[in-house]
Task: structure prediction
Amino acid sequence: MRRGKRSRLFRITRRQADRYLLRFVRGSFRVLRVFPRSLSARWAERVFLTPPRQARTRAERIADQVAVLVAEGRPLPASVTRGADVDVRGHDVRVSLPLTLAGHPLDVTATARTP
Result:
């Protein structure tokens, strides 16, 4: 690869870089001033609603798998439960998953019935 002088277009002095950075930051804050509610709502959804949804889905899947295994009379392997508390009583399977949300411990539960 041939080394030559960089064109003047790509030469940015430190002073110019500071100016560009300052413009970028000011522009970003202008955008944030206009859309604060939508951004805060999206942030709140990602932080507070997505983890419980994922835990609920996981608990439901584990409950369904355990119900099938119990109905077939097969033992429950540890790979199926994956840290969940499983309670089998008769035809009811209850799965409880621990979840920590904003520093508060919660339990997400799901129930399935065997045929």
User: Anything to note?
Assistant: DSSP finds three helices and three strands in the chain. Helices lie at 14-34, 36-72, 78-81. The first strand starts at residue 85 and ends at 89. Residues 13-113 form one domain.
